[in-house]
Amino acid sequence: MTDVKFKRLALIGIGLIGSSIARAARQHGLADEIVCAARTDETRRVALDLKIVDAAYENPVDAVRGADLVIFCTPVGTYETIAKAIAPALAKGAIVTDVGSVKGAVIKAIGPHMPDHIDFIPGHPVAGTENSGPAAGFAELFIGRWCILTPTKDAGEGAIARLSAFWTAMGSKVDTMDAEHHDLVLAITSHIPHLIAYNIVGTADDLEDVTQSEVIKYSAGGFRDFTRIAASDPTMWRDVFLYNKDAVLEMLGRFTEDLAQLQRAIRWEDGDMLFKTFSRTRAFRRQIIDAGQETAAPDFGRVHPGDDSAGKP
Ligand code: NAP
Questions:
Q1: What residues are in contact with ligand 1 under a 6 Å CB criterion?
Q2: pLDDT tens sequence across 135-149
Q3: Spatial CA neighbour of 121 closest among 86, 87, 101, 94
């Protein structure tokens, strides 16, 4: 059986994702020692107060010393600088991975700086919320959610199996694919939806003939669900679009063509076309519920008084 227990887990960054890993790893006894690096005093203090790490360092180099599992949990734009800094301090045989939402750019940012005596295996847990910081994490975040690993050909099979076992122990289902494919799939399933949400909320904010108080008052008509996604961390999402530019632009091209067709159908009162499209998309949602990636509870899974069937936010 694959040994899933690590001696020292070093989390570089301890926000929503890093702190959720710390909590889940502790709950399932996956590391003897859990340490983190964070840039601000406040984040380090909160992580220590919450008792989710044994030590918190300002310098990532101090966190990775002696670590057999190192996970980058900072915004993707920080990876290259951190990789260069920690490379000389990485222990022989360590597994180095990350949680970044894009993968091709991450391989380019970290890969060239990694020494031969470690295994570098990029990863992406497809799980999250719109909240940030160490207090926002929770141990159950990864349960039933996919974690995608995009190992390069240099990574050892044993290390891939160990990292897969680590994610599985935290409740994830693990898939492997190449980085380019990951970036294309996530462009349509995650990145474009976020762009649409940022755009629609931005448009509403700019409207002159409809007041902001009316937008807020009548937001239950659909708008508020976009505002949840549009409240996601600006730094993280800026980096996602800058570092997955090609795949996002490709998918955005497809999206705008399809949008233009819907626009045309409305202009020419083509009810059949609209009805067919909306029926197809309704069936699609059923598949997502059947795959266990969404609850069937009405109103977008919101928890209502007396209703305990809805999922986490
Ligand atoms: P977060 O809650 O904002 O936490 C970010 C962490 O990175 C904090 O500890 C922060 O430290 C640190 N950090 C930020 N800028 C830094 C810099 N320039 N140098 C050093 N440390 C820095 O972010 P998150 O949501 O956990 O996201 C982290 C990673 O997970 C990102 O790469 C993102 O793509 C990926 N991811 C996110 C989600 C999601 O839904 N949020 C889902 C899957 C993957 P301070 O607090 O001290 O500034």
A1: 13-18, 38-40, 43, 73-76, 78, 99-101, 125, 128, 132-133, 233, 236
A2: 999 999 999 999 999
A3: 94
